[in-house]
Amino acid sequence: MVEELDPRKKRILRAIIQEHIISASPIGSRTLAKKYNLDVSPATIRNEMADLEDLGYLEQPHTSAGRIPSDKGYRYYVDELIRDNSRKAPGMLNNIEDLYQDLQDVQDIISGMAKMLSNMTHYTAMVSEPKSQVSRLSKVEIMQLADNSLLLVLVTDAGMVNNKIINLDQKLSARKLSYINRFLSEKLESRLLAELNHAYLNELEKELLTRLDLSFELFKQFYNEFEGAFEPGGVKVYLGGTSYILEQPEFNDLARLKKMLKLLDQEEMLNKIINSISGSDLAIKIGQENEVEDIRNCSLVVATYYISNRAVGKIGVIGPTRMEYPRVISSVNVISDILSKLISKASG
Amino acid sequence: MVEELDPRKKRILRAIIQEHIISASPIGSRTLAKKYNLDVSPATIRNEMADLEDLGYLEQPHTSAGRIPSDKGYRYYVDELIRDNSRKAPGMLNNIEDLYQDLQDVQDIISGMAKMLSNMTHYTAMVSEPKSQVSRLSKVEIMQLADNSLLLVLVTDAGMVNNKIINLDQKLSARKLSYINRFLSEKLESRLLAELNHAYLNELEKELLTRLDLSFELFKQFYNEFEGAFEPGGVKVYLGGTSYILEQPEFNDLARLKKMLKLLDQEEMLNKIINSISGSDLAIKIGQENEVEDIRNCSLVVATYYISNRAVGKIGVIGPTRMEYPRVISSVNVISDILSKLISKASG
DNA sequence: GTTAGCACTCTCGTTAATTGAGTGCTAAAA
DNA sequence: TTTTAGCACTCAATTAACGAGAGTGCTAAC
């Protein structure tokens, strides 16, 4: 499928893609010959372009327009043609780290990094919360707020904090409460969230009921929250720079823009999008390669971030297929590194 | 400024506004005569329209277009012409309450109500978090997560929960921790947040330092969070139904749309918008009446919501001046009632 | 005070003409 | 054999012209 192209074809393909990234419109042989030093005439370029089209790297929106890169073209560009100056924006890393080092709430860090990434790339950025399935519960505690209301606090080793207010119809004595707390600590803390399934919680409930005559009420609410808060599909996705979409000429079409914005409004969709990306370190999905139908005219550049070397979440950028890949790739790399560091620090 | 209009003028003005709300385009005398039973000829209507224009209730986009309502026209409509069938959508209230009664996390309730309101009105809804200045702190607690990391939990009587992870360079003994907790409870709980200013916290710090040889570190972080979390201007604003803007023909203009979406991206702006609304129960700001420049072509319908009769937050709708006021007003009323109830319940 | 009639204005949508960028092909040059 | 120049052709996009339609303001009659 991926043939080796001769050097001239490579040069021409690269030039077309770079030009198209700038202009967002079809590129003709003439423009190309003028702007890039290819040392051949437009006619030759035309021939090469025809070849590249036959091979599937280019497309023609209509006869007598120039060519635009196809998904396959972008793919080739990303895999083969980008010079590796994209590894890292140098000193930057330290500066940003400094800037954000007093952000210690995990949620803040995440949404801050989403904003940062979108600012750097001028595309919309998305970051998913640390995945719960590989996290452990590091703290469970129920606090008394008032006679009939409690606060349940759950903390994972990824530093994610979840809380819920629970109202009871009866007062819970301090003795009972501290008993429950000890019990839950013992049974739940330092376990993988994935282990804490329905069955296990049910078991706990029975056990607790035999020891204390406790109404179902508390427990029911307790694990409603539990399952809700940490269920696999339900992680939050933070967005940054939604309005950058508006600057992309491909979204000058109102219908398309509408579709896109509606999409970004739906959290489940975002989840699907960002989680449909396989586990590799940096993944790039171009156009039709995307699983989610509605973004088949977009590209994703997504990296995984880590807490103490455990993969926990995704951070990435979504934009038109005509994307400034080198810059975006380097930014996503940088920011995912920073995110990993910050979040590892924050979660102790 | 607000003259009394004769009955026929009133009827015509109302008809024009209602028609314009539906069609979003200028209304001519002919259409009006046909669609509404006004029992006069187009010519008469033309004369009346000319009068209404002179009085400032109508505008003409250009000669030989129909008329559209001016801000003043809408204002008159809202104040005088809406029949009071807008008080309440009947059985609805109970249903929604039932639907949401198991939502007990305040943040969830708020964002749920934002979504609900936007679904009902098909405009963008905004809800501000309970204002902190009139809330009391009902619970302060520091929990140990690991040797050198703590979790600070703050709960207000409005049910708002805030937490922050604090990392220390030294280990804090259990004795010291429980001492601090008692101390903070005593000094802080059930106080108005407004009282907990820099000066007061400073005093506490000194007092605590004389009793325990505690590094500054903890306290510094502690009240960073404190001031950050509950500062007056910094309440969160939840949005619902952002994408409904796209359905309004007045935002078919890309430039305008862009401006609007950018605006909604900026939380400070949202704060400014929703907090610029005076304290009355239901406020309506039409076009130029808005303080924030960028929404001078929009209308706001905003209600206050309450926790146990104390005003704490705002909930409202933003849309084009051509807004279905009766329906929106009733929806905002209903939802703000529900929100008050739910949130009062949730916060015990 | 109301209405009919009429000339006038302005927008909007359609069609037609023009422009210009770009192609593919052929034949000559290298 | 490869490259290039030349030329006829295509098609989208812009502009101009035009007619239709909606609406107005004014005047004169009812």
Walkthrough of the structure:
Two copies of one chain form a homodimer. Chain A folds into three domains: 7-81, Arc Repressor Mutant, subunit A, CATH 1.10.10.10; 92-130 and 235-346, GAF domain (Beta-Lactamase); 137-233, Enolase-like, domain 1 (2-Layer Sandwich). In chain A, a hairpin with a 2-residue loop joins strand 9 (298-307) and strand 10 (310-320). The first copy, chain A, has twelve helices and ten strands. Helix content of chain A is 46%, strand content 18%. The first copy, chain A, is elongated. With 348 residues, the first copy, chain A, is of the alpha+beta class. A five-stranded antiparallel β-sheet of chain A has the order 7-3-10-9-8. A three-stranded antiparallel β-sheet of chain A has the order 4-5-6, with helices on one face. The two termini of chain A are 47 Å apart. Chains A and B meet through strand 4, strand 5, strand 6 and helix 10 of A and strand 4, strand 5, strand 6 and helix 10 of B. Chain A binds a DNA duplex (30 and 30 nucleotides) through helix 2 and helix 3. Chains A, B: Keywords: Repressor, Stress response, Transcription, Transcription regulation. Chains A, B: Negative regulator of class I heat shock genes (grpE-dnaK-dnaJ and groELS operons). Prevents heat-shock induction of these operons.
